[in-house]
Amino acid sequence: MAVSVATLASRAMKNFLQGLLIFVSLCLCALIAFQWVRETRQQKDLQVQADKIHDKMEAIQNLELQGKRFEAEIQRLDGLKNDMAGTIKTNKVEIEKLNKDLLKVEASLANSEKQAEAYKGALQNANESIALQNESVKRQNEEMKKLAEDRNEIVKKLNKMAADYNDLVTKWNKVQEDLAAQATNAPAPAKK
User: Fold this and answer.
1) What is the pTM of this model?
2) Plot region of 126 (φ>0 → left; ψ -120 to 50 → alpha; else → beta)
3) Domain boundary assignment for the chain
4) Contact present, 114 and 140 (Cβ < 8 Å)
5) Within 1-129, where are the H helices?
6) CB 158: neighbour CB atoms within 10 A?
7) How far is CA 40 from CA 83, 117, 153, in A?
8) In the 8-state DSSP scheme, what is residue 190?
9) pLDDT (tens digit, 9 = 90+) per residue, 77-130?
10) CATH 1.10.287 fits 50-182, yes or no
């Protein structure tokens, strides 16, 4: 059993080299596993960042679209406001015209009333022409009725115009309230 020192040394060297090879192999495996874990984490981080960027880009696009919709709505409402302003101006002109017409009718009515008084005085002073005066009074009464009816018709038109104007003002106020309610500075809700 005498094994030579050289044999023992070669066996020891062989065992040492095998152990060293196994140790280096295990170290390489550990290094590969470490790098694989690190790469996986980096890939996850990159994906999270890409998802965040995508979400932010989508939010930007949604805000831009919403801004365009708001701009279009503002333009539409501005057009409606301008139309209403034009209608109000024409209504004011029409009301002024009706007021002038009413003043003319009232003046004409006052003249007619003065004429009726003059006819009544003439009736009292001229008893010999009773028949002519009766016809004159009848005719004057018909003219007064016609003038009163004309005046009443104009007053009805004026009242209708005033009611239409009040309805228009009510609608205008409602539109202004709706605009005020829609014009908020609250941010849009974030998409999940």
Assistant:
1) 0.35
2) beta
3) 50-182
4) no
5) 5-125
6) 15
7) 64, 112, 90
8) P
9) 999 999 999 999 999 999 999 999 999 999 998 998 888 888 777 767 766 776
10) yes
